[in-house]
Amino acid sequence: MRKVLLMVALTLTLATTFLAATKRNFQTGKLVSVTEDERLDEGTSYRWAIFTVRVGDLVYTARGERVRRRSGDLGQGLIIGDAVQIALDGSEYLILLKPDGKELKTRIIKRARTQ
Predict the structure, then answer these.
(1) Displacement of CA 61 from its chain's centroid (Å)
(2) Are 110 and 61 in contact (CB under 8 A)?
(3) Which helix (H) or strand (E) holds 66?
(4) Is 62 exposed, middle or buried (0-12, 13-18, 19+ CB in 10 A)?
(5) Alpha-carbon gap, residue 8 to 100, rounded angstroms
(6) Residue 22: its pLDDT value, please?
(7) Radius of gyration of the chain (CA)
(8) Does 62 score more than 90 pLDDT?
(9) Is-contact 94 86, C-beta < 8 A?
(10) What is the DSSP secondary-structure string of the chain?
(11) Alpha-carbon distance 8 to 67, whole Å?
(12) Average pLDDT over residues 82-91
């Protein structure tokens, strides 16, 4: 009985892992800039990386994860002016594919059409 329960639990775990893996529809864009945004909250300074990416006639500005002091490369290996692979995750998130193949999830803070 114990072995059967263990097998069922293992099967359910594997099934949810494979179902949760989403296939993203990446498209090619151009990394326009990587800057930082700094905010002061009750005497504590917080910094975030800000990514600007152009895809077709749209320009997305997205905020990355919080950046620590002396953390080094804000762009996490991405080079301004280079082509980047991006995917939209719903209407809130922009996924950038870093040079090492890992995904960088950023929150969209602005959308604009190019002129």
Answers:
(1) 12
(2) yes
(3) strand 58-67
(4) buried
(5) 36
(6) 62
(7) 19
(8) yes
(9) yes
(10) -HHHHHHHHHHHHHHHHHHHPPPP--EEEEEEEEEEEEEEETTEEEEEEEEEEEETTEEEEEEEEEE-TT---TTTT--TTSEEEEEEETTTEEEEE-TTS-EEEEEEEEEEE--
(11) 42
(12) 88
Average pLDDT of 97-105? 86
What is the reported pLDDT for 79?
83
Q: CA torsion sign, 71 to 76 to 60 to 93?
A: negative
Q: Is the CB of residue 48 less than 8 Å from the CB of residue 64? A: yes
List the single range of 28-32, 40-44, 66-70, 100-104 with lowest mean pLDDT.
Answer: 66-70
- Is the pTM for the entire model greater than 0.85? no
pLDDT the model gives residue 109? 93
pLDDT number for residue 16:
55
Nearest to 29 by CA among 82, 99, 98: 82
Element (H, E) at 46: strand 44-55
- Distance between CA atoms of 93 and 76, rounded to whole angstroms? 18
